[in-house]
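## Example record

The block below lists the input lines for one assembly entry, exactly as stored, with component labels intact.
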Amino acid sequence: MKSEVKLLGAWPSPFVTRVRIALNMKSVEYEFLEERLESKSQLLLQSNPIYQKIPVLIHRDKPLSESLIIVQYVDDVWSSHSPILPSDPYDRAIARFWAAYIDEKWYPTMRSIRGAEGIEEKKRLIEEVKKGLGLLEEVFKNSSKGKGFYGGDQLGMLDIALGGFLGWLRVTEIANGVKLLDQGNTPELVKWAQRFCEHDAVKHVMPDTGKLIEFAKTLKR
Amino acid sequence: MGEVKLIATPASFPCARIEWALRIKGVEYEYLKEDLANKSALLLQSNPVHKKVPVFLHNDEPIAESLVILEYIDETWKENPLLPLDPYQRAQARFWAKFIDEKCVLGIWGATVAQGEEKAKARDGALESLAFLEKEIEGKKYFGGEKIGYLDIVAGWMSHWLSVLEEVGEMELLTAERFPSLHEWSHNFIQTSPVKDCIPPRESVVQYFSFGVNYVRSLAASTKS
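Predicted structure tokens for the full assembly:
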């Protein structure tokens, strides 16, 4: 039933995109409630009083927040097909480790490029982001085992965790005149990024880069 | 079920989490004590990204990050489950674990290190975080219900390390008046097996945190002009 699952979100948010991809993979019907960032809805404030942020998944009236926690929940509940986490505990640990790395180290570095003071600082942060992608390239080679995604033939946790950021990664590249994913440093990820964005579960929910650039202009520094 | 090793230091609470989990599961492990001032080749090889403890080795395959290790342990040794079986409750446990590590640990550490005007603000933030946890533990003996679970293990540092941070940071946070349920939980937790036989001496934790606080403060002082 569609109303059984609601997702509070906003189209530009990479964290919301992650959840939408997971729900799409599992063919879950859901009601998408678009939040306006200037004024948070009562439902959002009630459902996520601690952080007051999107995404929030509401399943049978029970709210859940934090994108990767929601993704794992979706994987647990709709478990009959398209597993997001691998079945082997060690592979699961590796996926969780790198997902935490992406959220705690890699993404905050990329996000801070925008507000960086001075060219030297920007350059340093850009190098760090590229270095991180180099690590994630190695992880891809090990995890994909020759297939198209971190999850193998299907999308997995790391595809969703990293892939959700591709729109903003492109915006960062354009805004700074750099290539973060490139043939020299991350050839596998260059191909992966294209495959990811063309995937059925992704292509209708990945925000358009041009629209993101316009949106970014409206954000305070 | 294979060879289990833990690279750890005694005063570190993320390391304690792993020991508690292994003991609850009845898993035998080899403790490899690490000297953080002189990191071993094994540590650097096993955790090249963060170079930190704890690192868990199962049949020589390394895993880092305490929350990741806890889930691995729970999935590999099925006795005495740590995480709830219900998917929603499991998700909630993960949510609170993340909250504890991101808001409580960092917030309380920030309040410990801060001085002057900044300290009051940092302290208020820390108190706000503890208030959320108080609501979560209200009416329960442990976060896990009748027995210690994943979230108790994650929050466990508040039963021993927190009072040291209060001392080193010269502030009071977790008092019975302010947070009666959380305070009671912390007393229960530290007296429960296996925790009670597996906590570092207070002096070593005082030394560990004092060193860290002085280091951070001296860094801050040297970067201010």
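The first helix of chain A runs from residue 14 to 25. The longest strand of chain A covers residues 5-9.
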